[in-house]
Design brief:
The protein has 15 helices and 10 strands. The protein is an alpha/beta fold and 511 residues long. The longest helix has 75 residues. The chain is elongated. It holds the Pfam family PGAP1. It comes from Tessaracoccus aquimaris. One of its GO terms (molecular function) is hydrolase activity, acting on ester bonds. InterPro entries: AB_hydrolase_fold, PGAP1-ab_dom-like.
Length: 511
């Protein structure tokens, strides 16, 4: 039993190491519906892998505890046997105690008491053996039952995934049947039916994407935050209008494969105040003409040299305002209102995937001249939608397996609905009159790793939401605020104030 327990512990260690190895693999850049389903299947497989490793570990502990208890029973049996021999008794295979004393020792009046004492000890050991067997069987059986329940949960997840895919396929087949039938029976209806086919298929493609809150509920039973459900409903409802009108209204589209715009040397941050002031930099990567729709925003990845090197990722926020029609119609910049709603409701968006790919590419570019890094250290920063993107990336278990995310610093971002990895410390600033960070409705789940710093500000919401205002107020309050000072210490390896910090700029967005 001890050998089996030891072997299974070794198997658990191997499985866990392999599990972490698979998680840490940097996947190729791949986008689209098939990629989404592949990621869902991959997550399901890794979740089951981790569960089975845990199950095997529990089985090893039960067997090890049973072996220890059995050793104690065997020791008590040996003591009982020695006691019986010393008093000239034998214990048969059936447990019957027999006298082996010869005359005149057999006449000792104490032998009746010794016989009853030894017989009672035999009965006690038999009861302990039966109890041991029953307890061990129950504990192992409980593992089987729990695994069956986990299997039922996995079946529910599989059915949900299949239901989404099946509904899409069913509607797509029905639409095609109507178009084919109309070509024969009612040619004038072919055009409108084809328009409906395009619209409904497009809507089902979006509706078939499982939001993160649904996956979390299926995997963990955690109920969604209201803002997540509202965000998904807003995105789907507005996207449906676009599908019905044959436009790209509220269409998040597909991620853009990032391209290296170039590198720049900047002064590295020396404090949290500098990190917040730098949140304006990604906005400046766009050209001076806001009407130029061919200009994309860029993610900045700055290298803080050291052993190991560290990377500061600066993510742009919303670059197209609600007052512009381009902010509603799936612009290639990708950082617009559709992306905002989708990032809150789904935990993902085209520009989020594009940003993750840009981080991969920037670090691979650095590794091409400096050698591979086993698990690069990263600090994620962003303003407004940039903070949402940064927090969603920090909540992606596949990303945090590949990278050591040492923190998130955001300003004016509604991130309290995002299940950020609890090992990642988060600092989020919000102004009194800035309505944007309040759109998460405060969230409903406690996140001890998220520190919210309120900055009193009674100006108009637009001014209160701006990066310059946040930079000014963070600088004003940095000396007397314990949370800001704590993060200055926590993020000290990034806040070196180095000069000539190499910064990679990668264009991102949607196709």
């Amino acid at each position: 039993m001890e050998a089996e327990a030891s072997t299974n512990r070794q198997r658990v260690a191997t499985l866990q190491a392999q599990h972490q190895g698979v998680l840490a693999m940097r996947p190729p850049v791949w986008f689209g519906k098939a990629a989404d389903r592949s990621r869902q299947d991959f997550r399901l497989m890794l979740h089951r892998w981790a569960e089975l490793a845990d199950l095997l570990g529990q089985q090893a502990e039960i067997v090890s505890d049973a072996a220890a208890e059995l050793r104690r029973l065997q020791a008590d049996q040996r003591d009982l046997q020695r006691n019986a021999v010393s008093k000239r008794f034998s214990i048969g295979d059936s447990g019957w105690v027999s006298s082996t004393a010869s005359f005149p020792a057999s006449l000792d009046p104490r032998r009746a008491w010794w016989w009853s004492e030894l017989s009672g000890a035999v009965v006690s050991i038999v009861l302990r053996l039966n109890g041991f067997d029953g307890r061990t069987a129950f504990a192992l059986g409980k593992l089987v039952v729990n695994d069956l329940l986990d299997g039922a949960q996995q079946t529910a997840i599989d059915w949900t995934n299949s239901g989404f895919a099946g509904a899409q396929d069913l509607l797509s087949g029905a639409n095609q049947w109507m178009v084919d039938a109309a070509e024969v029976l009612w040619p004038d209806a072919v055009g409108p039916l084809q328009a409906w086919q395009r619209a409904s298929n497009g809507f089902m493609d979006e509706a078939g994407r499982q939001p993160r809150w649904l996956q979390e509920m299926l995997y963990t039973g955690k109920l969604p935050a209201p803002a997540e459900v509202l965000g998904q409903g807003l995105y789907l409802g507005m996207h449906g209008i676009g599908d019905l009108t044959g436009t790209q209204f509220f269409d998040d589209g597909s991620p853009y494969v990032p391209t290296l715009r170039g590198t720049e040397q900047i002064n590295g941050p020396a404090s949290v105040t500098d990190l917040v002031a730098n949140l304006d930099r990604p906005y400046d990567t766009r050209g001076p003409d806001d009407s130029d729709r061919t200009d994309r925003p860029a993610v900045e990845v700055s290298v803080i040299e050291g052993h190991p090197p560290r990377f500061i990722v600066n993510v742009p926020g919303t670059t197209i305002g609600m007052g512009s029609i381009n902010g509603w119609t799936g612009d290639i910049e990708g950082t617009d209102w559709p992306a905002d709603a989708k990032a809150v409701g789904y935990g993902d968006s085209a520009v989020t995937q594009s940003t993750k790919a840009a981080i991969d590419m920037a670090i691979r570019e650095y590794e091409s001249t400096h050698g591979p890094i086993e698990r690069p250290n990263i600090l994620l920063t962003g303003h407004s939608q940039g903070g949402i993107i940064a927090a969603n990336i920090a909540a992606d278990p596949a990303f945090t397996a590949r990278y050591q995310v040492d923190g998130v610093v955001s300003a004016g971002s509604p991130i309290n609905t995002i299940p950020i990895n609890p090992d990642v410390p988060v600092l989020n600033f919000h102004h009194t009159t800035d309505v944007v960070p309040k759109l998460d409705l405060g969230g409903v789940h406690d996140q001890p790793n998220v520190t919210e710093v309120h900055l009193p500000r009674w100006t108009d919401p637009g001014t209160a939401h701006g990066v310059p205002t946040y930079a000014t107020d963070v600088a004003t309050h940095s000396q007397g605020n314990a949370d800001i000072q704590r993060f200055n210490d926590l993020l000290a390896p990034y806040l070196t104030g180095q000069g000539n910090v190499v910064t990679y700029q990668y264009d991102i967005g949607r196709q």
